[in-house]
Amino acid sequence: MTGDTQTRPSRHPETEIAYDAVIVGAGFAGMYMLHCLRQLGLSVRVFEVGGGVGGTWYWNRYPGARCDVESMQYSYSFSEELDQEWRWTEKYAPQAEILSYANHVADRYDLRRDIHFNTNVTKATFNEDTKRWVIETDHGDRVNAQFCIMAVGCLSAANKPPFDGLESFKGPVHHTGEWPHDGVDFTGLDVAVIGTGSSAIQSIPFIAQQAKSLTVFQRTPNYAVPAWNEKMDPAYERAIKDDYPAFRAKARARPTGFYFPFNMESALDATPEEREQQYDEAWARGGLPFLGAYGDLLFEKDANDTIAKFARAKIRAVVDDPATADLLCPDNIFGCKRLCVDTGYFEVYNQPHVKLVDVSQNPIERFTETGLVANGVEYKVDAAVFATGFAAMTGSFDKITIIGRHGQTLREKWRAGPRTYLGLSTVGFPNFFMITGPGSPSVLANMIPSIEQHVDWMTDCISHMRDIGAATIEPELKFEDDWVEHVNDVAQVSLRSTCSSWYVGANIPGRPRIFMPYIGGFPIYVNKCNEVMTNNLEGFTLKDAQNNDGVNFDVTPRTRWTERWRVPVDINIISPATIAAKRVPVV
Ligand code: FAD
Ligand code: NAP
C-alpha cells in the first residue's frame, strides 16, 4: 500500500540523553504540550513518525478532506494574539489550510527545534529503580525521561483490512489516512472505494470527478448532513474576533465543546408539522449542529426515529434510482455512528459512471491482480481507495510496546478494553499521560479544546509535582475502577451505546466492545478534572524519589493553566439533572 512518500533525513540517534519529558506525536496535542512544558522550563523531546507537524492534517490529504467543526472553533484558543492574527478563508477549512495553520503555530512558537520527525516510537519502558521512562525509536534513539506523554491521536492508526489476495493486485492502493503528498490522479481510471464513512463521503465526489468509473463498496450506509460550506463571512469573523474569549467560553460550556444553537425540547412533544419545520431549519444550517434540533434525539428511540425518517427522505429526494437510494438509506439510529457531513455525496450516485455495491451480507471476498471480488462478481479496477477508517482511540497505543510497573504491558492491561482514570492516566504506569485518551470526551467533543484542556491540566499537575518535589504520580485502582464504571454507566443512557461503531471498537474484528469516549459532556468532565486538581489530585498517589507517599505533599496545587477552564456551566443545558432526564445532545 502506498503512503507517505517523504524520505527520512539522516541524523544521529540520541542515546542515553535525559529529558524531563518525552512526547509522542506532533499533532495539535503534541504541539501544544511541547509549548506548555517549555514554559515550565522543562527539557522536552518530541518524536513524530510523520515528516511534519499537524498529525491528522498531515496524513489525511485525500481530496475533499476538511474539518466539520467550523474553523472559528476548530482552532487553538490559548493565545488571543494567535486567534486574532490567523484568518480562516472558509467556514470549514480544507485540509491544506488546517495544515498551514499547524505549521504557522510551529513557526510562531519555534516548536520544530525540539521535534524529531520521521521517527517512530516503538517502545517505552518504566524503570522502577530510576523512576524514569526509557523511550526507544525505530531510528535507534534510546532516551529517558521523567514523564512520557502520549499525543498519538485517537484516529491515527489506519485500519487496513487484510483482504485475501491484496498483494497480488497490480494497481495502487491508497488509504485515506495515509494519502500521498503529491496527490493522486485518477483521470481515466476505473477506481474502487471501500467504505462509506466520513472520509469516503468527503472524497467520493472528488474521485468521481476524475475517474472513468467509480465503484463504491458499502458495508454500512451512513447518514450525512450537508455542510453548506462557504467562504468565511467577514462580518461573522469580525463579530467573533471582537470578543473571542467570550465566544470560546460559551463554547466550552456546551456538551460538545463547540457552540451552535440547540433546542432542549423533546422531539416527541412537537407535532409532526412542528418537527418538520424544526428539521428543515436545522438542515438549512447544516453540518453536525443538525443533531441539536431536539434534546432527546440520542436518548429516545422514538424521537430518533423522527429525525432518521427525515434524513432518509432527504436521501431518497436526491438519489434517482430507488434501488440505490434504498441501499444508501441507513436503518439504524441517526447519529449513532459518528455523523457524516457532506458536500454533494448522495448526488454522485446519479452519475452513470458511479456504482454502489452492497457488501453488508457478504464481505469482500478477495482481491485479484486486476480488481476485487464481491458477491461472486469480479470488479475490474485500476486503483483502490481504502476509506476504511482507523483502529480508533487505542490503535496507536497498541502499536507501541509500553511497559509499566512489574513488566506489565499496556496491551495486556487493555486487552478487554481500555481502563483509565479520567482518560488522562492508567494504574501501573506512573508519570504516563494520555492526551484525549479513552475515558475522556475526546472524539465526542471539539477535539482542539479537548486537547488544550488535557494539556493545561497536565501542565498544572507537572508544575505542582515540581513545586512539592514529587517524583511520580499514578492513579489509584479504586478511582480508576469507579471512573471506568461511570464512563460505562453514562454511555448506557445514550442510544450511541447500541450500535456497531468505532466508538465501541466494532469496526475491526476481534477488538473488545466497550464504549471508549466519555459521553457525559465536555463541561461536566472539565469540572470533574478541576475538582480532582483542587482536591489535591484526588485519586492519584504521588511519591517522592524514595518512594514515600504523602510526605510534605499536602499542598493545594496552583491552577495557573486550568484556570481558564473554570467557565460557568449553563445548567439548563448540561448538568447531572439533564443527564438523568436524558437531555444531553452530544455530537
Ligand atoms: P493526531 O492529529 O492524530 O496526531 C497524532 C500524531 O502522533 C500523528 O502525527 C502520528 O503520526 C503521531 N504518532 C502516533 N504514533 C506514533 C509513534 N509511535 N511514534 C511517533 N509518532 C506517532 N476532530 C474535530 O474535532 N473536528 C473535525 O472537524 C475533525 N475532522 C477530522 C477529519 C479527519 C479526516 C480525521 C481523521 C479526524 C478528524 N478529527 C476532527 C479528529 C482529529 O484527529 C483531531 O481533531 C485532532 O487533529 C487530533 O490531534 P492529535 O494531536 O490528538 O492527534
Ligand atoms: P469510518 O467512519 O470508520 O469509516 C470506515 C468505513 O469503511 C465504514 O463505512 C466501514 O464500514 C468501512 N469498512 C471498514 N472495514 C471494512 C471492510 N473490511 N470491508 C468493507 N468496508 C469496511 O472511518 P473514516 O471515514 O475514516 O472516519 C473516521 C472518523 O474520522 C470519523 O468518524 C470522524 O470522526 C473523523 N473524520 C472526520 C471528517 C470530517 O468531516 N471532518 C472526515 C473524515 C474523518 P462499517 O461502518 O460497516 O464499519
Summarize the structure.
Helix content is 29%, strand content 16%.
Question: Which characteristics define this entry?
Answer:
16% strand, eight-stranded mixed beta sheet, alpha/beta, FAD/NAD(P)-binding domain, 587 residues, globular, 29% helix
Explain how this protein is built.
It is a single chain. This protein is of the alpha/beta class. The protein folds into two domains: 332 residues, FAD/NAD(P)-binding domain (3-Layer(bba) Sandwich), CATH 3.50.50; 118 residues, FAD/NAD(P)-binding domain (3-Layer(bba) Sandwich), CATH 3.50.50. Helix content is 29%, strand content 16%. The strands form five sheets. Strands 1, 2, 3, 4, 5, 6, 17 and 18 form an eight-stranded mixed β-sheet that branches. Strands 7-16-8-9-12 form a five-stranded parallel β-sheet, covered by helices on one side. Helix 1 runs parallel beside helix 13. It is globular and about 70 Å long. The chain starts with 14 loop residues before the first strand and ends in a 7-residue tail after the last helix. The model has no long low-confidence stretch (mean pLDDT 93). The protein binds flavin-adenine dinucleotide (FAD) and NADP nicotinamide-adenine-dinucleotide phosphate (NAP). The site of flavin-adenine dinucleotide (FAD) has 37 residues, from helix 1, helix 2 and helix 13.
